[in-house]
Amino acid sequence: MQSNSNQEQQIKKDLKKEEVLELIDQNDSNKDNLIPILHAIQDKYNYLPKNALEIVSKYLEIPMANIYGVATFYTRFSLKPKGKYTISVCMGTACYVKGAQNIVDKLCKELNVKVGETTDDMIFTLETARCIGSCGLAPALMIDDKVYAKVHPNDIIRILSEYR
Hints:
Elements: H1 4-14, H2 17-26, H3 34-45, H4 50-60, H5 64-73, E1 85-90, H6 93-97, H7 100-111, E2 124-129, E3 141-143, E4 146-148, H8 156-161
Parallel strand pairs: 1-2
Antiparallel strand pairs: 1-3, 3-4
């Protein structure tokens, strides 16, 4: 497991001030467009790098505390680097009683991460969700927008292979 500081250092090397300014400009360089600007940054970097937020703060004259307030309020935003694919295992009642924890355990073992972490190769981030609205398909998980139904721990290697 690569430490978050190592992951951030790698992404900082890739982050260019001009790219962030371009994202700001694409949203009319307007304070009222903070959320769309944060979405654009999140889409580009797969999370909200601190130095990108500092650029937004400076150029839009918005205090960092306000930007962090928005970034931490909305679950769509992440302040930690995320993988190319996000795996969300449903832990709602139907999924939980049908073995969702066994699926989480198998994913943790196969990916060598804990829930909330990202693989060293930055391919997968593992998360749990309260409910993904697929109770009739329990236990279920999602990789980005694709739902996998009636998942058994033995299915995990096959499912992951679709993304590797």
